[in-house]
Recover the amino acids of this structure.
Protein backbone atom coordinates (compact mmCIF):
# COMPACT_ATOMS: atom_id res chain seq x y z
CA UNK A 1 0.00 0.00 0.00
CA UNK A 2 1.54 3.31 -1.00
CA UNK A 3 1.48 6.22 1.45
CA UNK A 4 0.68 9.84 0.70
CA UNK A 5 4.40 10.70 0.84
CA UNK A 6 5.27 7.87 -1.58
CA UNK A 7 2.86 9.28 -4.13
CA UNK A 8 4.22 12.81 -3.76
CA UNK A 9 7.79 11.55 -4.17
CA UNK A 10 6.99 9.31 -7.15
CA UNK A 11 5.22 12.17 -8.87
CA UNK A 12 8.18 14.51 -8.36
CA UNK A 13 10.76 11.90 -9.33
CA UNK A 14 9.09 10.23 -12.30
CA UNK A 15 6.17 12.12 -13.83
CA UNK A 16 6.88 14.60 -16.63
CA UNK A 17 3.95 17.01 -16.48
CA UNK A 18 2.58 18.58 -19.69
CA UNK A 19 3.06 22.32 -20.32
CA UNK A 20 4.99 22.49 -17.03
CA UNK A 21 8.46 23.81 -16.22
CA UNK A 22 10.20 21.21 -14.06
CA UNK A 23 11.98 23.70 -11.78
CA UNK A 24 8.70 25.37 -10.81
CA UNK A 25 6.95 22.04 -10.32
CA UNK A 26 9.70 20.62 -8.15
CA UNK A 27 9.91 23.76 -6.02
CA UNK A 28 6.60 23.09 -4.23
CA UNK A 29 5.05 19.83 -3.07
CA UNK A 30 2.67 18.83 -5.87
CA UNK A 31 -1.07 19.00 -5.44
CA UNK A 32 -2.25 15.46 -6.13
CA UNK A 33 -5.92 14.74 -6.75
CA UNK A 34 -7.18 11.57 -5.16
CA UNK A 35 -10.94 11.81 -5.69
CA UNK A 36 -13.73 14.07 -6.85
CA UNK A 37 -17.37 14.76 -6.16
CA UNK A 38 -19.66 16.88 -8.34
CA UNK A 39 -17.81 20.10 -9.20
CA UNK A 40 -15.17 19.52 -6.50
CA UNK A 41 -11.74 17.90 -6.78
CA UNK A 42 -10.38 16.35 -3.58
CA UNK A 43 -6.65 16.10 -2.81
CA UNK A 44 -4.66 13.45 -0.93
CA UNK A 45 -5.35 15.25 2.35
CA UNK A 46 -9.08 15.42 1.75
CA UNK A 47 -9.12 19.15 0.90
CA UNK A 48 -11.81 20.14 -1.60
CA UNK A 49 -11.38 22.52 -4.54
CA UNK A 50 -13.91 23.92 -7.00
CA UNK A 51 -12.86 22.68 -10.45
CA UNK A 52 -12.69 26.13 -12.05
CA UNK A 53 -11.28 24.91 -15.39
CA UNK A 54 -13.38 21.73 -15.72
CA UNK A 55 -10.25 19.54 -15.55
CA UNK A 56 -8.81 21.19 -18.65
CA UNK A 57 -12.09 22.24 -20.26
CA UNK A 58 -13.59 18.75 -20.34
CA UNK A 59 -16.02 18.29 -17.47
CA UNK A 60 -19.67 18.99 -18.18
CA UNK A 61 -22.02 17.40 -15.63
CA UNK A 62 -19.63 17.19 -12.67
CA UNK A 63 -17.41 14.34 -11.52
CA UNK A 64 -18.79 10.94 -10.51
CA UNK A 65 -22.15 11.64 -12.09
CA UNK A 66 -24.41 8.65 -11.36
CA UNK A 67 -25.62 8.28 -14.97
CA UNK A 68 -22.11 8.41 -16.44
CA UNK A 69 -20.74 6.06 -13.78
CA UNK A 70 -23.57 3.59 -14.41
CA UNK A 71 -23.05 3.69 -18.20
CA UNK A 72 -19.38 2.84 -17.71
CA UNK A 73 -20.09 0.02 -15.28
CA UNK A 74 -22.66 -1.38 -17.68
CA UNK A 75 -20.19 -1.28 -20.59
CA UNK A 76 -17.48 -2.85 -18.39
CA UNK A 77 -19.75 -5.86 -17.95
CA UNK A 78 -19.70 -6.29 -21.76
CA UNK A 79 -16.26 -5.35 -23.09
CA UNK A 80 -13.70 -2.67 -22.21
CA UNK A 81 -11.97 -2.53 -25.57
CA UNK A 82 -12.14 -4.11 -29.00
CA UNK A 83 -10.55 -2.64 -32.13
CA UNK A 84 -12.40 -0.67 -34.79
CA UNK A 85 -9.88 -1.76 -37.42
CA UNK A 86 -11.82 -4.47 -39.21
CA UNK A 87 -14.50 -4.81 -36.49
CA UNK A 88 -17.51 -2.79 -35.44
CA UNK A 89 -18.72 -2.19 -31.90
CA UNK A 90 -22.15 -1.53 -30.46
CA UNK A 91 -21.26 1.73 -28.65
CA UNK A 92 -19.36 3.23 -31.60
CA UNK A 93 -22.17 2.54 -34.08
CA UNK A 94 -24.81 3.87 -31.68
CA UNK A 95 -22.79 6.96 -30.84
CA UNK A 96 -22.11 7.70 -34.53
CA UNK A 97 -25.84 7.66 -35.19
CA UNK A 98 -26.58 9.90 -32.18
CA UNK A 99 -23.86 12.39 -33.18
CA UNK A 100 -25.16 12.59 -36.74
CA UNK A 101 -28.64 13.34 -35.35
CA UNK A 102 -27.20 15.92 -32.96
CA UNK A 103 -25.22 17.88 -35.57
CA UNK A 104 -28.24 17.89 -37.87
CA UNK A 105 -29.32 20.82 -35.67
CA UNK A 106 -26.55 22.99 -37.18
CA UNK A 107 -28.35 25.61 -39.25
CA UNK A 108 -27.65 26.94 -42.69
CA UNK A 109 -25.81 26.13 -45.85
CA UNK A 110 -23.74 23.03 -46.38
CA UNK A 111 -24.25 19.29 -46.56
CA UNK A 112 -25.16 17.12 -43.57
CA UNK A 113 -22.29 15.70 -41.53
CA UNK A 114 -23.09 12.01 -41.67
CA UNK A 115 -19.77 10.17 -41.28
CA UNK A 116 -17.90 9.82 -38.00
CA UNK A 117 -14.18 9.02 -37.80
CA UNK A 118 -13.04 8.25 -34.26
CA UNK A 119 -9.77 9.12 -32.54
CA UNK A 120 -8.61 9.98 -29.03
CA UNK A 121 -7.90 13.68 -28.46
CA UNK A 122 -8.54 17.12 -29.86
CA UNK A 123 -5.15 17.04 -31.56
CA UNK A 124 -5.85 13.77 -33.32
CA UNK A 125 -9.32 14.97 -34.37
CA UNK A 126 -7.63 17.92 -36.11
CA UNK A 127 -4.82 15.75 -37.47
CA UNK A 128 -7.43 13.45 -39.02
CA UNK A 129 -9.35 16.41 -40.46
CA UNK A 130 -6.23 17.88 -42.08
CA UNK A 131 -5.19 14.59 -43.68
CA UNK A 132 -8.75 13.76 -44.70
CA UNK A 133 -9.35 17.17 -46.33
CA UNK A 134 -6.03 17.05 -48.16
CA UNK A 135 -6.52 13.50 -49.41
CA UNK A 136 -10.13 14.17 -50.44
CA UNK A 137 -9.01 17.11 -52.55
CA UNK A 138 -6.20 15.10 -54.13
CA UNK A 139 -8.52 12.19 -54.89
CA UNK A 140 -11.07 14.56 -56.42
CA UNK A 141 -8.37 15.54 -58.91
CA UNK A 142 -7.56 18.87 -57.20
CA UNK A 143 -3.82 18.24 -57.16
CA UNK A 144 -2.92 21.94 -56.83
CA UNK A 145 -4.73 22.11 -53.49
CA UNK A 146 -1.84 21.26 -51.18
CA UNK A 147 -2.01 23.97 -48.51
CA UNK A 148 -4.09 24.78 -45.45
CA UNK A 149 -5.21 28.20 -44.25
CA UNK A 150 -5.48 28.96 -40.54
CA UNK A 151 -6.08 32.01 -38.38
CA UNK A 152 -3.48 34.03 -36.56
CA UNK A 153 -3.12 32.88 -32.94
CA UNK A 154 -4.76 29.55 -33.75
CA UNK A 155 -4.38 26.57 -31.44
CA UNK A 156 -5.42 23.14 -32.67
CA UNK A 157 -3.34 20.80 -30.51
CA UNK A 158 0.19 19.53 -30.06
CA UNK A 159 0.76 16.86 -32.72
CA UNK A 160 2.82 18.10 -35.67
CA UNK A 161 -0.03 18.63 -38.16
CA UNK A 162 -2.03 20.50 -35.55
CA UNK A 163 1.07 22.49 -34.59
CA UNK A 164 1.64 23.36 -38.28
CA UNK A 165 -1.71 25.14 -38.40
CA UNK A 166 -1.15 26.59 -34.93
CA UNK A 167 -0.09 30.21 -34.63
CA UNK A 168 1.10 30.66 -31.05
CA UNK A 169 4.80 31.38 -31.28
CA UNK A 170 5.52 30.41 -27.65
CA UNK A 171 4.14 26.90 -28.13
CA UNK A 172 4.90 26.34 -31.81
CA UNK A 173 7.93 28.42 -32.80
CA UNK A 174 10.70 25.94 -32.06
CA UNK A 175 9.11 23.22 -34.19
CA UNK A 176 8.90 25.31 -37.41
CA UNK A 177 11.62 23.30 -39.23
CA UNK A 178 9.51 20.16 -38.72
CA UNK A 179 6.21 21.68 -39.87
CA UNK A 180 4.37 22.31 -43.12
CA UNK A 181 3.82 26.03 -43.74
CA UNK A 182 0.21 27.14 -43.25
CA UNK A 183 -1.27 30.17 -44.96
CA UNK A 184 -1.99 32.58 -42.13
CA UNK A 185 -5.16 34.72 -42.15
CA UNK A 186 -5.57 37.79 -39.91
CA UNK A 187 -7.99 37.34 -37.01
CA UNK A 188 -9.68 39.84 -34.72
CA UNK A 189 -9.05 39.67 -30.98
CA UNK A 190 -12.54 40.84 -30.09
CA UNK A 191 -15.76 41.29 -32.06
CA UNK A 192 -14.93 44.83 -33.23
CA UNK A 193 -16.73 45.54 -36.56
CA UNK A 194 -13.96 47.78 -37.91
CA UNK A 195 -11.17 45.29 -37.16
CA UNK A 196 -13.27 42.38 -38.43
CA UNK A 197 -13.99 44.22 -41.70
CA UNK A 198 -10.26 44.86 -42.19
CA UNK A 199 -9.44 41.19 -41.49
CA UNK A 200 -12.09 40.11 -43.99
CA UNK A 201 -10.75 42.43 -46.70
CA UNK A 202 -7.33 40.84 -46.25
CA UNK A 203 -8.83 37.33 -46.23
CA UNK A 204 -10.70 38.17 -49.43
CA UNK A 205 -7.46 39.27 -51.09
CA UNK A 206 -5.68 36.09 -49.93
CA UNK A 207 -8.48 33.78 -51.10
CA UNK A 208 -8.59 35.53 -54.51
CA UNK A 209 -4.84 35.08 -54.97
CA UNK A 210 -4.24 31.72 -53.27
CA UNK A 211 -7.65 30.06 -52.90
CA UNK A 212 -6.98 27.61 -55.74
CA UNK A 213 -3.93 26.25 -53.83
CA UNK A 214 -5.87 25.61 -50.63
CA UNK A 215 -7.22 22.23 -49.59
CA UNK A 216 -8.81 23.46 -46.36
CA UNK A 217 -9.43 26.31 -43.95
CA UNK A 218 -9.33 25.44 -40.24
CA UNK A 219 -11.06 27.62 -37.63
CA UNK A 220 -11.96 27.63 -33.94
CA UNK A 221 -15.56 28.89 -34.06
CA UNK A 222 -16.22 32.11 -32.06
CA UNK A 223 -13.43 31.73 -29.48
CA UNK A 224 -9.71 31.11 -29.88
CA UNK A 225 -9.41 29.63 -26.41
CA UNK A 226 -5.74 28.77 -25.95
CA UNK A 227 -4.71 32.09 -27.54
CA UNK A 228 -6.30 33.77 -24.51
CA UNK A 229 -10.07 33.63 -25.10
CA UNK A 230 -9.84 35.84 -28.21
CA UNK A 231 -13.29 36.32 -29.70
CA UNK A 232 -14.89 37.11 -33.06
CA UNK A 233 -18.50 37.57 -34.11
CA UNK A 234 -20.63 34.91 -35.82
CA UNK A 235 -20.93 37.34 -38.74
CA UNK A 236 -17.13 37.41 -39.15
CA UNK A 237 -16.93 33.62 -39.09
CA UNK A 238 -19.81 33.29 -41.55
CA UNK A 239 -18.12 35.70 -43.98
CA UNK A 240 -14.83 33.81 -43.69
CA UNK A 241 -16.49 30.44 -44.22
CA UNK A 242 -18.36 31.93 -47.21
CA UNK A 243 -15.04 32.98 -48.79
CA UNK A 244 -13.61 29.49 -48.29
CA UNK A 245 -16.67 27.75 -49.70
CA UNK A 246 -16.77 29.97 -52.80
CA UNK A 247 -13.09 29.15 -53.41
CA UNK A 248 -13.70 25.38 -53.25
CA UNK A 249 -11.80 25.15 -49.95
CA UNK A 250 -13.03 22.58 -47.41
CA UNK A 251 -14.00 24.10 -44.04
CA UNK A 252 -12.68 22.39 -40.90
CA UNK A 253 -14.41 23.59 -37.73
CA UNK A 254 -12.46 22.76 -34.58
CA UNK A 255 -15.09 22.72 -31.83
CA UNK A 256 -12.82 20.78 -29.49
CA UNK A 257 -13.00 23.58 -26.91
CA UNK A 258 -16.31 25.22 -27.85
CA UNK A 259 -18.44 22.08 -28.28
CA UNK A 260 -20.93 20.62 -25.81
CA UNK A 261 -22.48 23.77 -24.45
CA UNK A 262 -19.41 25.91 -23.70
CA UNK A 263 -20.58 28.96 -25.64
CA UNK A 264 -24.19 28.68 -24.47
CA UNK A 265 -25.36 26.48 -27.37
CA UNK A 266 -24.37 22.83 -27.86
CA UNK A 267 -22.10 23.92 -30.71
CA UNK A 268 -20.74 27.42 -31.33
CA UNK A 269 -21.64 26.96 -35.01
CA UNK A 270 -25.32 26.97 -34.10
CA UNK A 271 -24.86 30.73 -33.98
CA UNK A 272 -23.64 30.79 -37.64
CA UNK A 273 -25.08 30.07 -41.08
CA UNK A 274 -22.51 27.80 -42.72
CA UNK A 275 -22.03 24.15 -41.95
CA UNK A 276 -18.44 22.94 -42.05
CA UNK A 277 -17.25 20.09 -44.27
CA UNK A 278 -15.39 18.60 -41.32
CA UNK A 279 -16.18 19.03 -37.62
CA UNK A 280 -13.71 18.14 -34.85
CA UNK A 281 -15.08 17.30 -31.39
CA UNK A 282 -13.29 16.06 -28.26
CA UNK A 283 -12.92 17.31 -24.63
CA UNK A 284 -16.57 17.51 -23.47
CA UNK A 285 -17.75 14.70 -25.74
CA UNK A 286 -17.51 12.17 -22.90
CA UNK A 287 -18.64 14.70 -20.29
CA UNK A 288 -14.98 14.89 -19.26
CA UNK A 289 -14.67 11.19 -18.38
CA UNK A 290 -12.46 9.48 -20.96
CA UNK A 291 -10.34 10.41 -23.97
CA UNK A 292 -12.38 10.31 -27.17
CA UNK A 293 -12.57 12.47 -30.27
CA UNK A 294 -14.45 12.49 -33.55
CA UNK A 295 -13.94 14.06 -36.94
CA UNK A 296 -17.32 14.25 -38.64
CA UNK A 297 -17.70 14.81 -42.35
CA UNK A 298 -20.06 14.82 -45.33
CA UNK A 299 -21.07 12.08 -47.74
CA UNK A 300 -19.20 14.02 -50.41
CA UNK A 301 -15.85 13.86 -48.56
CA UNK A 302 -16.44 10.18 -47.74
CA UNK A 303 -17.19 9.51 -51.40
CA UNK A 304 -13.71 10.75 -52.40
CA UNK A 305 -12.25 7.75 -50.56
CA UNK A 306 -14.41 5.09 -52.24
CA UNK A 307 -13.18 2.75 -54.96
CA UNK A 308 -11.71 -0.72 -55.39
CA UNK A 309 -8.86 -1.53 -52.99
CA UNK A 310 -6.34 -1.48 -55.84
CA UNK A 311 -7.11 2.20 -56.46
CA UNK A 312 -5.57 2.87 -53.01
CA UNK A 313 -8.07 5.56 -52.08
CA UNK A 314 -8.28 4.25 -48.51
CA UNK A 315 -7.80 6.63 -45.57
CA UNK A 316 -4.72 4.96 -44.11
CA UNK A 317 -5.10 6.33 -40.60
CA UNK A 318 -6.20 4.90 -37.25
CA UNK A 319 -5.15 4.75 -33.62
CA UNK A 320 -4.98 1.67 -31.43
CA UNK A 321 -7.72 2.74 -29.00
CA UNK A 322 -9.88 4.38 -31.68
CA UNK A 323 -13.55 4.39 -30.58
CA UNK A 324 -12.80 2.70 -27.28
CA UNK A 325 -16.18 1.23 -26.19
CA UNK A 326 -15.96 2.58 -22.63
CA UNK A 327 -15.32 6.08 -23.96
CA UNK A 328 -18.18 5.74 -26.45
CA UNK A 329 -20.49 4.56 -23.65
CA UNK A 330 -19.56 7.64 -21.61
CA UNK A 331 -20.23 9.85 -24.65
CA UNK A 332 -23.66 8.27 -25.15
CA UNK A 333 -24.54 8.89 -21.51
CA UNK A 334 -23.29 12.47 -21.86
CA UNK A 335 -25.57 13.08 -24.87
CA UNK A 336 -28.45 11.52 -22.96
CA UNK A 337 -27.93 14.03 -20.15
CA UNK A 338 -28.14 16.90 -22.66
CA UNK A 339 -31.27 15.45 -24.25
CA UNK A 340 -33.98 16.95 -22.04
CA UNK A 341 -32.60 20.46 -22.58
CA UNK A 342 -32.59 21.39 -18.87
CA UNK A 343 -28.82 21.84 -18.66
CA UNK A 344 -28.79 24.15 -21.69
CA UNK A 345 -31.77 26.04 -20.28
CA UNK A 346 -29.83 26.61 -17.05
CA UNK A 347 -26.86 28.19 -18.85
CA UNK A 348 -28.02 31.83 -19.29
CA UNK A 349 -28.25 32.26 -15.50
CA UNK A 350 -24.77 30.76 -15.04
CA UNK A 351 -23.29 32.83 -17.85
CA UNK A 352 -24.68 35.97 -16.18
CA UNK A 353 -23.29 34.89 -12.82
CA UNK A 354 -19.85 34.55 -14.39
CA UNK A 355 -20.21 37.94 -16.09
CA UNK A 356 -21.24 39.64 -12.84
CA UNK A 357 -18.42 38.03 -10.86
CA UNK A 358 -15.83 39.02 -13.47
CA UNK A 359 -17.17 42.58 -13.52
CA UNK A 360 -16.72 42.74 -9.73
CA UNK A 361 -12.98 42.03 -9.96
CA UNK A 362 -11.25 45.37 -9.31
CA UNK A 363 -10.26 47.14 -12.53
CA UNK A 364 -7.06 48.24 -10.83
CA UNK A 365 -5.93 44.62 -11.25
CA UNK A 366 -7.90 43.42 -14.26
CA UNK A 367 -7.65 45.24 -17.58
CA UNK A 368 -9.97 43.08 -19.69
CA UNK A 369 -12.70 40.52 -19.17
CA UNK A 370 -13.17 38.16 -22.09
CA UNK A 371 -16.23 35.93 -22.07
CA UNK A 372 -18.33 33.85 -24.43
CA UNK A 373 -20.79 31.65 -22.58
CA UNK A 374 -18.95 29.69 -19.90
CA UNK A 375 -15.54 30.30 -21.51
CA UNK A 376 -13.88 33.29 -19.92
CA UNK A 377 -10.66 34.93 -18.89
CA UNK A 378 -9.56 37.92 -16.79
CA UNK A 379 -6.49 39.69 -18.17
CA UNK A 380 -4.27 40.99 -15.38
CA UNK A 381 -3.34 44.67 -15.55
CA UNK A 382 0.37 45.52 -15.34
CA UNK A 383 1.53 42.37 -13.53
CA UNK A 384 4.26 43.44 -11.09
CA UNK A 385 6.51 40.43 -11.77
CA UNK A 386 6.89 37.58 -14.27
CA UNK A 387 4.57 34.57 -13.81
CA UNK A 388 2.23 36.68 -11.68
CA UNK A 389 -0.92 35.00 -13.04
CA UNK A 390 0.62 31.61 -12.25
CA UNK A 391 1.33 32.81 -8.72
CA UNK A 392 -2.27 34.03 -8.33
CA UNK A 393 -3.59 30.63 -9.46
CA UNK A 394 -1.42 28.86 -6.87
CA UNK A 395 -2.70 31.23 -4.17
CA UNK A 396 -6.30 30.59 -5.27
CA UNK A 397 -5.86 26.98 -4.16
CA UNK A 398 -5.66 28.15 -0.57
CA UNK A 399 -9.13 29.57 -1.15
CA UNK A 400 -10.40 26.23 -2.41
CA UNK A 401 -10.30 26.82 -6.15
CA UNK A 402 -8.34 25.29 -9.04
CA UNK A 403 -7.75 27.61 -11.99
CA UNK A 404 -4.96 27.93 -14.57
CA UNK A 405 -3.47 30.89 -16.39
CA UNK A 406 -2.71 31.42 -20.06
CA UNK A 407 0.09 33.98 -19.94
CA UNK A 408 -1.30 36.98 -18.03
CA UNK A 409 -4.89 35.75 -18.39
CA UNK A 410 -6.63 33.76 -15.68
CA UNK A 411 -9.01 31.30 -17.29
CA UNK A 412 -12.47 30.44 -15.95
CA UNK A 413 -14.11 27.38 -17.51
CA UNK A 414 -16.51 25.97 -14.91
CA UNK A 415 -18.26 22.67 -15.56
CA UNK A 416 -21.69 23.43 -17.06
CA UNK A 417 -23.16 21.80 -13.97
CA UNK A 418 -21.60 24.35 -11.60
CA UNK A 419 -24.24 26.43 -9.77
CA UNK A 420 -24.25 30.24 -10.16
CA UNK A 421 -23.19 30.74 -6.51
CA UNK A 422 -20.27 28.33 -6.98
CA UNK A 423 -19.23 30.17 -10.16
CA UNK A 424 -19.25 33.44 -8.20
CA UNK A 425 -17.26 31.78 -5.40
CA UNK A 426 -14.64 30.60 -7.92
CA UNK A 427 -14.09 34.11 -9.29
CA UNK A 428 -14.17 35.69 -5.82
CA UNK A 429 -11.48 33.26 -4.65
CA UNK A 430 -9.27 34.45 -7.49
CA UNK A 431 -10.06 38.04 -6.45
CA UNK A 432 -8.84 37.26 -2.91
CA UNK A 433 -5.72 35.57 -4.30
CA UNK A 434 -5.04 38.63 -6.46
CA UNK A 435 -5.34 40.92 -3.45
CA UNK A 436 -2.89 38.80 -1.49
CA UNK A 437 -0.43 38.56 -4.38
CA UNK A 438 -0.47 42.34 -4.85
CA UNK A 439 -0.05 42.90 -1.11
CA UNK A 440 2.99 40.66 -0.79
CA UNK A 441 6.28 40.28 -2.55
CA UNK A 442 7.27 37.26 -4.64
CA UNK A 443 6.45 34.01 -2.82
N1 LIG B 1 -8.32 22.30 -30.58
C1 LIG B 1 -8.66 23.25 -29.70
C2 LIG B 1 -9.51 24.39 -30.15
C3 LIG B 1 -8.24 23.16 -28.37
O1 LIG B 1 -8.56 24.13 -27.49
C4 LIG B 1 -7.46 22.06 -27.98
C5 LIG B 1 -6.99 21.93 -26.59
O2 LIG B 1 -7.11 22.79 -25.77
C6 LIG B 1 -7.11 21.10 -28.94
C7 LIG B 1 -7.56 21.24 -30.23
C8 LIG B 1 -6.25 19.93 -28.57
O3 LIG B 1 -6.96 19.03 -27.80
P1 LIG B 1 -6.17 17.87 -26.99
O4 LIG B 1 -5.45 18.57 -25.89
O5 LIG B 1 -7.29 16.98 -26.50
O6 LIG B 1 -5.27 17.19 -27.94
Amino acid sequence: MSTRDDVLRWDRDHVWHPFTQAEEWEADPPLVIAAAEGVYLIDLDGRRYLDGVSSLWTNVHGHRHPALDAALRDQLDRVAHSTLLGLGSVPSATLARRLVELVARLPGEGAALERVFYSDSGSTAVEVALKMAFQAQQQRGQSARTRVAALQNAYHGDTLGAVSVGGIELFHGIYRPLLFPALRLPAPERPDPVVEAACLREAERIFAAEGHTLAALVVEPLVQGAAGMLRHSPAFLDALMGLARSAGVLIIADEVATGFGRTGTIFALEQCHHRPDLLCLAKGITGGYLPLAVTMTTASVYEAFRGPYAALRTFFHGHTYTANPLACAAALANLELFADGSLLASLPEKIQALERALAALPSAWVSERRQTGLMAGALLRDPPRPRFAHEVCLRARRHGVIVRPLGDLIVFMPPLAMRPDQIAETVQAVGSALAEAWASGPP
